[in-house]
């Protein structure tokens, strides 16, 4: 028998370890969002950011546990709750245990209910819902469940910070509220009315209406009503094509006041507004790009632009999802036991490369973090969006926004 030298033994061991890492099963994350139709650009941009974050933060650093890499598996839900439930079942049948979704709270509400039912009935194939952008407050209140984690601030948290800025502007005496006719749009409107009424009772809400989501081709009638109302400012939760269509029409029809938004950046929106949106469009968001928050964030952004020259990191919370999931799986020592992973996520404090700390509040699985109000501009930018020369620059910050806000969540744990 051939004698194995010390060097040979080390080489053999290296081959064994390398082979084990090579054949370690990937940890798959199902991305269920629109990849076709009117909101395809929004969904595709989110998919690219998930794929890059997984490679940049996890896979390039050797993966988690014993070399397991993150793999993002895309499913087109066509922004339909019904189609989303079909894709959810396909993902579960493929053995995927982590579901990421963010576009449309209507979809998120359907998914969280289905996942809760599935997990109660099928304890051997439980899944976690990683909600990165659906901000209907009900998801972490009356409809909360152990399997759902929201990494974005909910509509109420964002509106609380946004209305602090609005009531501090003495030039704003009249506000027009407009949004998409579904759960999120209604939540934004309700929050705007409540917070403005509490903080500045003499401020007049001169318009409060909803329009069909993804179906309005010409926003001129809405824009004319806004202008004729005498409003000094507009508040909207619109996103995707509806944000661009509304904003462009409002500006083109002569409205000169600030337009306060949730999602008026990136995915072609910033480039389309261009000079017309300068000093007009305001955005409430998490994560600071202008100014860039850290050298780590700069490296991530530069790497992303190298891979996707026409893309933007306009949803930095996606990187928080990947980073926090990686830490939770490492802490749990397993990716298969989602109860252990969820327990590790609860109460986690995570230092985000985009600035500040993320706290996953255990009582409702709502991420608490700094919120920034920024302005659409081409002045003093570290990074623009859409290669347009324009971006969003932070004007004010609310640290750990709504940390002590109440919740009606009554969490039932397995």
TrEMBL record:
It holds the Pfam family Peripla_BP_6. Keywords: Amino-acid transport, Signal, Transport. InterPro entries: BCAA_transport (IPR051010), Leu-bd (IPR028081), Peripla_BP_I (IPR028082). Residues 27-374 form the Leucine-binding protein domain. The keyword Transport applies. The keyword Transcription regulation does not apply. It comes from the Bacteria. One of its GO terms (biological process) is amino acid transport. CDD domains: PBP1_SBP-like. Residues 1-24 form the signal peptide. Belongs to the leucine-binding protein family. This is Branched-chain amino acid ABC transporter substrate-binding protein. It comes from Sulfitobacter donghicola DSW-25 = KCTC 12864 = JCM 14565.
């Amino acid at each position: 028998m051939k004698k194995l030298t010390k060097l040979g033994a080390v080489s053999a061991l290296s081959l064994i370890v390398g082979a084990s890492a090579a054949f370690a099963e990937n940890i798959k994350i199902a991305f269920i969002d629109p990849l076709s139709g009117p909101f395809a650009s929004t969904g595709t941009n989110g998919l690219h950011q998930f794929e890059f974050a997984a490679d940049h933060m996890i896979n390039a650093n050797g993966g988690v546990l014993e070399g397991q890499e993150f793999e993002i598996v895309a499913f087109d839900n066509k922004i339909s709750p019904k189609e989303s439930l079909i894709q959810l079942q396909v993902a579960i049948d493929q053995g995927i245990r982590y579901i990421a979704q963010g576009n449309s709270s209507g979809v998120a509400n359907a998914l969280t209910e289905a996942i809760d039912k599935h997990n109660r009935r099928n304890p051997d194939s439980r899944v976690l819902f990683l909600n990165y952008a659906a901000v209907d407050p009900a998801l972490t209140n009356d409809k909360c469940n152990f399997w759902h984690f929201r990494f974005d601030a909910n509509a109420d948290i964002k509106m609380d910070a946004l209305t602090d800025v609005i009531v501090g502007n003495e030039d704003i005496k009249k506000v027009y509220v407009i949004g998409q006719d579904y759960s999120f749009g209604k939540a934004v409107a309700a929050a705007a009315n409540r917070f403005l009424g509490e903080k500045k009772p003499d401020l007049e809400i001169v318009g409060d209406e909803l329009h069909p989501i993804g179906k309005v081709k010409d926003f001129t009638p809405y824009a004319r009503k806004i202008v004729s109302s005498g409003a000094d400012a507009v508040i909207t939760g619109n996103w995707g094509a509806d944000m661009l269509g509304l904003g462009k029409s409002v500006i083109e029809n002569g409205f000169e006041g600030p337009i306060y938004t949730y999602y008026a950046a990136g995915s072609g929106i910033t480039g389309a507004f261009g000079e017309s949106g300068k000093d007009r469009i305001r955005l409430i968001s998490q994560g600071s790009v202008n100014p860039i928050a850290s050298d780590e964030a700069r490296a991530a952004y530069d790497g992303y632009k190298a891979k996707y020259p026409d893309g933007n990191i306009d949803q930095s919370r996606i990187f928080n999802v990947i980073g926090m999931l990686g830490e939770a799986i490492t802490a749990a020592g397993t990716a298969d036991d989602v109860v252990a992973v969820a327990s590790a996520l609860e109460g986690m404090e995570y230092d985000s490369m985009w600035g500040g700390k993320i706290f996953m509040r255990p009582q409702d699985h709502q991420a608490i973090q700094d919120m920034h109000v920024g302005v659409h501009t081409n002045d003093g930018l570290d990074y623009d969006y859409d290669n347009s020369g324009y971006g969003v620059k932070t004007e004010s910050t609310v640290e750990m926004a709504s940390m002590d806000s109440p919740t009606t969540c009554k969490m039932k744990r397995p």
